[in-house]
Specification:
12 helices; 16% strand; Butyryl-CoA Dehydrogenase, subunit A, domain 2; Butyryl-CoA Dehydrogenase, subunit A, domain 3; 398 residues; binds flavin-adenine dinucleotide
């Protein structure tokens, strides 16, 4: 296995770096640097810039408007993006439902949905979980009953990230109660403006409104918005979860966090010296960096497998477990580095236009919300306990 980059790959990396440096709007990168929530119009603005460059969808094939890059190029691109303060990709359209639509959708669905995912015009959310169906997703109860050429959908979805600002949702619904639970599920694309959809905010521990409890009452969905066959939705849902888990490995994001941690620890004092010169703290940072480097090489091994045409299977769960644990470890160390200054919880400081003096250094304000939100990383995308079960069964054969 050859893990070194070719000269062409290195030239490509220079090209990406130069482009981002030149084109990333300064106000967006400043907001990312400050740890402010990046709102929808700003993310759309950056997506549009990438779209105009032809780089909107690094993972998509050329025929659907993607770059057609191989796994190595995609990795280099993500890396180069993370070196700058670029906003994180919102996964639901580009990384999740887009690939599902071009793989299993009809021509009409491809034509209708893919262009607006690419240019960022339409935002998606994911309607899988329900109050009684999380890890045990197949027990979902939201019902869709065929009435002429429409399904009528009734039920409740929860933890719906971005449902309050999304234009469309991809949703799992129960279309049959016969046989095994998995065999009665269908996959629908639903316009969030349809009468009867009511997203209600759930405020998370970091103080943000990221997700929602969404009620569906007699929501009429054209049957042509079903992906694939009726009652075969479980297969599409699983395909999409594989994509989700791969994208949660978060090497780029963790590298960004490691750099931030080192820079904060370089500013903070311990016995009059920089905290980075404190041997016991520096050892913890080094340990986290070793973990991250080994995780990065694990990620590269997966890419090499993919590049060699070998499909990735259940082992992708390893990436999700390690990636999220490392992300949490880095946020914990950042809180430790800040000491008392991690404690003030002034969310207003992270809003645009705040001009009051901050308690402690300016860089401290975003760290506690980020630490708190990172607790969720080992839950979403399928909890890490469930990922361990998958590895035990499917990889180790236990
Ligand atoms: C920040 C965030 C964003 C999310 N966004 C979305 C979204 O946009 N769309 C969406 O559909 N869902 C979303 N989710 C929901 C997420 O997928 C579920 O929270 C997750 O699948 C776990 O389900 P649950 O919360 O019902 O917990 P449960 O399934 O009730 O699990 C509770 C605990 O029991 C453990 N457990 C359960 N079963 C087993 C088992 N068999 N073996 C060992 N341990 C087990 C779990 O690991 C967990 O620790 C989001 C969640 C979070 C936290």
């Amino acid at each position: 296995m050859d893990l070194a980059f070719s000269d062409d790959d290195l030239a490509f990396r220079d090209e990406v770096r130069a482009f981002v440096k030149e084109n990333l709007p300064a106000d967006i990168s400043e907001s990312v640097r400050q740890g402010r929530a990046i709102d929808k119009p700003d993310i759309q603005r950056w997506q549009r810039i990438l779209f105009d460059q032809g780089w909107a969808a690094p993972g998509w094939p050329v025929e659907y408007g993607g770059t057609g890059w191989n796994a190595t190029r995609r990795y280099i691109f993500d890396e180069a993006m993370s070196e700058f303060d670029t906003p994180e990709t919102v996964p639901f359209g580009l990384l999740m439902v887009g690939p599902l639509i071009y793989t299993f959708g009809t021509d009409a669905q491809k034509e209708r949905f893919l262009p607006k995912i690419l240019n960022g015009e339409e935002w998606w959310c994911q309607g899988y979980s329900e109050p009684g169906a999380g890890s045990d997703l197949a027990s979902l109860q939201t019902k869709a009953v065929l009435d002429g050429d429409h399904y009528v959908v009734n039920g409740t979805k929860t933890w719906n990230s971005s449902a309050h600002i999304a234009d469309w949702t991809f949703t799992l619904v129960r279309t049959s109660s016969e046989g095994k639970q998995q065999e009665g599920i269908s996959f629908l694309l639903i316009d969030m403006k349809t009468p009867g959809i009511d997203p209600n905010p759930i405020v998370s521990i970091d103080g943000g409104h990221h997700f929602n409890m969404t009620y569906y009452t007699d929501v009429r969905v054209p049957a042509e918005n079903r992906i694939g066959e009726e009652n075969k939705g479980w297969a599409y849902a699983k395909y999409l979860l594989g994509h989700e888990r791969q994208s949660i490995s978060e090497v780029g994001l963790s590298k960004q966090r490691l750099r931030r941690l080192k820079s904060i620890a370089g500013e903070e004092r311990s016995d009059g010296e920089s905290l980075m010169d404190d041997k016991s703290f520096a050892k913890k940072v080094a340990e986290a960096e070793v973990q991250l480097t080994s995780h990065e090489y694990l990620n590269l091994r997966f890419l090499a497998e993919e590049a060699a045409g070998r499909p990735i299977g259940a082992e992708v769960s390893l990436l999700k477990i390690r990636g999220t644990e490392i992300r949490q470890q880095l946020t914990e160390l950042t809180i430790e580095a800040l000491g008392y200054y991690a404690a003030p919880f002034e969310l207003e400081q992270l809003t645009e236009g705040w001009n009051e003096p901050s308690i402690g250094p300016e860089y401290a304000a975003a760290q506690m919300p980020q630490y708190l939100f990172s607790r969720a990383a080992t839950i979403y995308g399928g909890s890490n306990e469930i990922q361990r079960n998958i590895i035990a069964k499917m990889v180790l054969g236990l």
